[in-house]
Amino acid sequence: MMATARADRFHHVHVPVARFQNGLGRLSFYDYSACAISVITLVSSNFWKVQGPAILFAFILFCMSYVVYSAIRRNIFYKNIILFLFSLVGSIYLALSWFDFLPGEPEFFLQDYVFRMGYFVAAIYPMTAMFYALFCILRKNDMFTMFSYISITGCIVSVVALYLFPPYDGHWLVEGSQISFVDTVYSNVNYTITNITILLLWSVFWIFRNNKALIVMFLLFLSSSASAQMLLFSILALVVWSVNQPAKVVKPIALLIVFGFPFSAILMVVFGQQLGIDPNTIHRAKWWTEALLAMLANGGIGLGFGADSTTDFIVEDRFHMLGKWGQLPIHVIHNDFVYSFYSMGVIGGVLLLLYHFRSLIPSISVDRNINRHLSLIFLTICLTTSVNSAFVSPTIFVGLCFLYGYLQSMSNRTLSS
Question: Is the pTM higher than 0.85?
């Protein structure tokens, strides 16, 4: 029922108040709670330095309860066989990793890190299903704009709170603390695309989708960031909003992002020093290359979770350090496509690629600006998963599931009753 709704129903940024009131009346207390809990979870992830695992576990339980509620009350069912198989295969690899049953000889293996590095395979389906159900009911009631304003408000409150009450876990203050308020604002777009950044970008580009002048102004703000990720995102957004048929160019751009980074990594490992490339960039390229080579060396089976095959001395030093760096996870690939191949072998990596390029690529809608929003969101996913440890980090992973649910709620190919 939900999947047959047309994406081109959204034509105007400003929706009459009467329509808001009419739509609000159709939501239950549970739906309101899902909206509030989703926003709070996304914008508060910068504060998860001690209680993060407990908060994430509680959110997953809520997601499962809302999925059941949506199925019974709303008749909304999220069904995606590819993502289900990815989660199932990943869960099998979790068990095999815990008992150390996988072939191959990684440089490091810590059993304590198995679930820390692989929890996402069990969490990805219920979290995506929850956001899918939430977006379906919001879409039915034409409430994306209202949800966007609420989300932006949550982001602003989070930035103010981060400045006034920087979290401290007994070892180190988070990035962005002990700096000016303006720098605190910039810190949210100066490092990587996190949960709060994802929510902000989704909301702002939805509200501005019919106004190119406002979009350009916002892109100028983003491009002033010192983050290479944000600069690349700004370029992608500019391309998407410049072409007449964004849905036709999004796939080749996405393929270039997903396969271009690993290919470039191989070239940098071979020719990086001769070309004078930044050593930190070469380090990451080496992580990706050694991970792929290790996966191929064990027959494409994968080395599981809690394993690390990098020979980089920087990674080795982290096992002997205290404080901030001593708390970093063992695996530092910073590319979830490469990580899926490394940890779950060819089958896990292929399933992740199929999910992105079969289930998430937006279909063409009558509304060109809706197409642009969908296309940009898909490219945001590809960029984030290609340059970060997004699945491993809850401060990014929740936002990815948020975007997964959004794209599939807007796709006619998503199976639903």
Answer: yes
